[in-house]
Amino acid sequence: MGTIVCQTCNCTIDHFEDEKVTRLYSTCKSGECQKADEDLD
User: Fold this and answer.
1) Alpha carbon of 26 to those of 36, 37, 39, 41: distances in Å?
2) What distances in angstroms separate CA 31 from CA 18, 19, 21, 34, 39, one per listed residue?
3) Is the Cβ–Cβ distance between 12 and 4 less than 8 Å?
4) How far apart are CA 21 and CA 1, in angstroms?
5) pTM of the model
6) Regarding beta strands 12-16 and 2-6, do their DSSP bridges make them parallel or antiparallel, or are they unpaired?
7) Which residues are within 8 A (CB) of 16 and not within 5 positions of it... i.e. 6 or more apart?
8) For residues 16 and 1, what is the distance between their CA atoms, to the nearest angstrom?
9) So where are the chain's domains?
10) Which InterPro entries match (predicted)?
11) Tens-place pLDDT, residues 9-40
């Protein structure tokens, strides 16, 4: 099982099938995580 994680807000974006446990980093679509970060300020 693999997991795709946002490198900005560390939220889980998706899971995918893999032979070993894997974590890949990407970013949220359309700046969702940046909006969440601004709400925290």
Assistant:
1) 16, 16, 21, 23
2) 27, 31, 27, 5, 13
3) yes
4) 5
5) 0.63
6) antiparallel
7) 1, 2, 3, 4
8) 6
9) 2-40
10) SR1P (IPR025236)
11) 888 889 999 899 999 999 887 666 755 545 44
